[in-house]
Fold these 2 entries.
Entry 1:
Amino acid sequence: MRKLPDWVQEAGRVLAWREVVPGHGRLDVRAPALAARARPGQFAMVRAAPALRGGAVGMAPFLGRPLSFFDMDTTGGVVSFLVRVTGEGTRALAACRPGDVLVLLGPFGNGFPAANSGTLLLVAGGVGVAPFPPVARAAVSAGARVTALVGARSAPLVLGVRELRDAGAEVVVCTEDGSRGRCGMVTDVLPQLLDGFGAGPSAAFACGPPAMLAPVARLLEQAGLELHVSLEARMGCGFGVCRGCAVPAARGGYLHVCQDGPVFPARAVDLEAVARLWGAGTRAR
Amino acid sequence: MTPRGGADLEVNLAGIRLANPVLVASGTFGYGREMVRWFDLRRVGGIITKGTTLAPRAGNPPPRIAETPAGLLNSIGLENPGVDAVVREEIPFLREFGIPVIVNIAGETVEEYAALAAKLDRVEGVAGLEVNVSCPNVRAGGMAFGTDPLATAAVVRAVRNATSLPVMVKLTPNVTDIVAIARAAQEAGADAISLINTLKGLAIDVRGHRPLLGAVTGGLSGPAIKPVALRMVWEVAGAIDVPILGCGGIMTGLDAVEFLMAGASAVAVGSATLVDPLAAPRIVEEIAAYLEEEGFARVGDLVGLARRTLAGGGENS
């Protein structure tokens, strides 16, 4: 097992909140201790905490929100997150102004396995693109080629393309209404993309709505490729003590997103059950 | 170790010597393994382990967590590896820190509670038992025992007869008369009462049109429940003779001081650890600072102080 870097609790200063597409924003926070430790695919618990009660713990919102690292600048000491604004916790983040202080805990989770050679395929749906720019950058700098399939409902909601290209990835965009890139969902476009690979990708990672992950896993399994998925879950702590972020395991019982994940081999998780649990209508915070 | 100032922080909770009055509450600290990455466990008075059952439990279906105003709902469902694994793997790990370890036990029948107590009776490193008759998230056992004085007494008696360890009983606030339950526990042989477990609650996902938690209902914890917990500590402290461990929404040293003044001999920090992993040792420091600022020599001087003041006994008397 890889040794994880030390966890830290850090008061981070907001550098910017920028809405990038409607309902989604990029949050940049100066948090040097976290930035120095974060690895691609890991996450932090982030809380917009008014400094009530002893200066350390606020109450609204009470819990942090698990957010993947969208970018980390180790030399500048900055971490960035891509946030979909859906509830109280993320609205509080969207209300942040430069200079505001956030409480960050992390880095947590296992991250993606290293992809050092061959071709890495990234499959992202919506805000699921969040963990991939650092993954692409690491893979490209290690000598891999990276192709990213980025899906969204329509053109105004396409996320992360510039960041992925900056990281050195080739990006294929698809939208359900055909308003940008290829027409269709990622599951429609993925088979065409796999056909075009020749020898095929050597590794594949996916992140997105649970309803997307199960069919993506099936398609890649048919192509003889092991897929790693990054999962979301409601979390209490982020570091393993509350047992709140359980997801159904393929072999029965549960796995925990904060400790066992957030990145899992797709075959380790019952993705159909995850899709049912967090299916249409039930939205993340 | 004395965190700061000169005040004596040591307390005796039902025969368990605590270097300071701050324990960590069951279910918010696992078995300590994750927490050693945050701080030296010797900075807290003691550890109360995750609720432990006879057989391993996978826990409840997700989602298991929902945020609420000033708190959270959980329906973890006593996920744990079972008592044998805890004795074999977790207690030896915790024992190394040399601080009191209290194992929280939960059963579905009176016999299961007795079997758990017997299994833990002579385990080196176990300082006491916290009998969980108050978990709202399991179908059988748990809170069903803690809402009835006779059932509570039956569990406590069975545990009492199965162990020579100090027995603390963790009560549920989901009752009409907490004093009646606490009295029953004391009369059945409890050495201490732990107050309170979570309040049963519900949250609805208005976009998904269904309950937010997989188990429908869950246990409410956090600052939202502190006034309820304080009231129950106050009522029970006036009615029984055994010490009380106060728990419910403690985020700061001053919150802890409130519980002590209401009549608790020590406190347990729960949900605060989830959002601030350093909460428990910070609260120890804040209690010490309060004692120093207010000129109290011993943390024991705070225990029941508000009761004595109200009764006309005067401050610091």
Entry 2:
Amino acid sequence: MRQDHLISASHLSREDIEAVLDRAADIDDDPAAFRQRHAGKVLGLCFFEPSTRTRMSFDSAMKRLGGQTVDMGPVESSSVKKGETLADTVRVVEGYADALVLRHPSEGAATMAAEFVDVPLVNAGDGAGQHPSQTLLDLYTIRENAGLDDLTIGIMGDLKYGRTVHSLAEALTNFDASQHFISPESLRLPRNVRYDLHASGAQVREHTELDEVLPELDVLYVTRIQRERFPDENEYRKVAGQYQIDSETLEAAADDLTVMHPLPRVDEISPDIDDTDHATYFEQAHNGIPVRMALLDILLSQDR
Amino acid sequence: MTDDHQLRVSKIRNGTVIDHVAAGQALNVLAILGIDGTSGEAVSVGMNVPSDRLGRKDIVKVEGRELSQSEVDVLSLIAPAASINIVRDYDVVEKNRVVRPDAVASIISCPNRNCISNADEPIRSRFTVLSDGVRCDYCETIVREDEVAANLDVN
């Protein structure tokens, strides 16, 4: 990778992405070969927002590489409650760990934190900004199921506040992918992501209805409309529940459509899809292990 | 007509004349330069005066102060057509157009209230300059040129 940190998918080249995905495939093929790869190293987990999958998969990935983790625990029981700045927190935890994983409710938190530390720092979600390690496991899942070139993908739901969407859309500009964005008008992509997509010459179309594009799709990436990101509860109520799919919805889809979701889901995907060949979201979540192992392996192996 | 202009915006002996400022931006120019009248320099401001090039324009004349290049560059964000005239003994000795810098710091507040640059952290706001606006280096929010003035943190 070109840099020591992973902050934004917009910093990732195709070469960077393929290096991580290829390493993840190697790990999937022979996990035992990586079991002691980073014995003696420690990963610091700094989660200022709730997380289950991301926190546990980074924890598991580090341990499967032979390393250990230190976790600052819930914000409520940390020094943050005493008024400590994020800049101070990461500078302190840097002394305890060889790499840091940071999740924070403010956009740009990882960019700022990286300015204060010398160890590799992974952005595990910064508010409604970016979530690039999720994108790497998303791309791994897409590559396994549909391939990354000549791809037609629909990305549906909360495109405004959905950080996994922002990262995925920008990363896909490295590939021959046609991107269809499906959302309510009020939840369209933010200006900065549109700017990057336009600047990269990406093939992009926007829709308000899934059925306008469903039959064309190889992949449908569904996201949750996140109540916690809405500044106004009324605005949330206007759009909640608008984009739900079930097996009846998918009758119009290609037989080999891959349905993904970064999870957790609420009611966007009916459980009656879970047992179909379309459902890939649990496989997607499981891919967090080899992909995050690959990412940590690459970041921790760089000469510093 | 020229005499009339001179009555409204008098000549200065030494200092800087910022001409061809987009109409309505003069007070923002003063804000960027940190001029609020408390430091004693004489300042003349002409607003919405006729202009062949712009139709209407603002003019700012600052007595006894020559602007630095970095100050001039930042003006380009809100007054891209401005010209900067350095005056000594009533003569214009230097005339320059503004040049857009690659980046600016501590000049604009990020309008994204959830941006880390608006939190109580030991950092300055920092923006990369685009062709038609600026972009926050932290949260990547884009502020269009016509929105920059409203987000100046020197106001």
